[in-house]
Structure of MucBP domain-containing protein:
Amino acid sequence: MVYQPLEEKVEVIYQDNKGNSLKQPTELTGTSNGVIDYASIVPNIPGYTLITDGRNSAERYDTNTGSVQQVILTYQANPQQVIVDFEISRDGGKTWTNLANPATLAGVSDDKVDYSALQTAYPGYRLIDASQETKTKTYDTADGVNQHVNLYYASLKQVAVLQTDATDPDTAGGKPITTTTDGYSFGSLHFTADSEQNLARKGFTYKIYGPDGVWYDTLANAIAANASYDGTPSNNDVVDTVIPSTQPLKLSARSGLAKSVVPTNPRIDPSKPGVIAGDDVPQVFTASYTPMPESMVAHTLNDPAGNKIYPTATGMTGLDDNDRPIPSNSKLYQSSMQLSLVPNVPGFYNLNVVDTQLQTAASGLQNLVRNGYTYVVKAPDGNEYPTLEAATNAVHVFDNDPSSNQLFSVIYAAQLQTVNVVSDSSDPKGAQTIEIAHGPSDSNISLNSNDSNLKRSGYTYEVTGPDGNKYPTLAEALKQNVTYDHNAIPTATGVDPIPQNFTVSYTPVQQTANLIVEGKTVETVTGGSDSKISFNATDKDLHKSGYDYEVAAPDGKSYGSLAEALKAVPNYDHNDLTNGLDATPQNFTVVYTKNKDKENPSIPHDKDQQGSNKHVNGQKFVSFGERIEQYGLLGAILLAIPALIFLGLKKLKKEA
């Protein structure tokens, strides 16, 4: 009997050490108890190492035709690595850099990659694409070649706010200055170039309360200390970023208003600023203002008492940037933003000087009264006011320019004073006003009149000045009384109540009158100019028996008697003296002519002056009656005999 071997099959199975199939089994066909030909078997599997080779124990086909013979090749999975890169773009996806050091995940071929231990959350950033992680769930079998998984991140939007608080003089409750729109986590923080300028307020300083809770003198210093955005929003809004080979991820933004931070006001909480443009925790820089010291001062110009600067009144800036007063209900308001009131003088704001003497008595402050002067007050608003009280009522809030004082200029103007040049009753022309002159208080007196106007022929004069002293000339008086005084001129009248008088008083010089008889001066009398001429001699003294006479008077006329001549020329003239003497005396000249009508001599009898003697130029005139008394009757007869003989002879001659 001849036997033929039956057909047998061998199934080569590839599995890992856990019994997991690594690839499809390979079927080999042969005959019972025939040698198994493994030549077609490729035992190498990428990522795996053969650790148990079933071929070594199964060299021949079995003889069990009822079952398939199995040959198992057992493999050990090789170690594999996945490198995870954390990619961040800060320019919207144009360039990418590592956010953190790459992470290495280790496993074995075809094993599941465990990402659970991987740190994927980074403050300030958000994972915006993890698709490669999703796609790479198992380790590959490429021995010696690491797998790379890229996780893409975008920076979270960050916002910085610059604002003012309730101390802002320009806006009640403060206002936003600027909000950044290009900030991202840990990026460089900056505001617009004009931000510091926009914080400036005239007359105020400010400090910046930074997001770090520290005060800074300038915005620049605050930014230097907080140079980068933080990374702490909770909303996870990110900067729009284009992922490689993807479209931009558009994320919505939220906006809100930041609460004011008023470090001087406890009701403001800088830790809860609100939501700004998608940033739940914006970095807030808050400016808080303090008024600067200001000053007002009153000073005088054209002050007759010498220009003065009164003590400076000090306070704090009281106007906002628009030159409006800080309202009293403002958080910024202080009472020192305006002048205080003058003590005991209601309604008068205090510049350390007052208008009137009554106000001085009440307050103890100096006043602006200057006799002979009025004044106006030019206030810092450019307007003029009649009094300092009116000026300070108009301007009593300190301005916002600490670089200079607010000036109240008290400008004096002299009132018109009066000077009179007058003569008194001694003036031969009669008392009169020679000149009235007006001039500003304390200015130099200038007169049209001079000493030539004051001269009176036959008189000397002196001038009594306003100082009460006497001067020989008006010029000398003016040398000692140079300026107008400064009387207070009543507003109602505008008239100087006490003018300065230069009073001219005259004194007559001694004039001379001569009585001349037959070419001889028998009497010389003197008297003041324009005073009455009085000779000792009378017409009875001039009587001469057998003669008539006339008296030639100084007026060029002849009169029948001395009495008539004196009636016509009763007064001395008023010649100026030459070397102290009257060079042209007044002469009364007696001219005799023989009396032909009267034969008998008459015996002159002085009815008016019987018993009295007359002396004319040293000669004594005696009446006939006086001669009888002096020499007796006999003597008188003897004296009369020659006259009788003369008269008898004259009669005889006439008869013949």
About this structure: The longest helix spans residues 624-655.
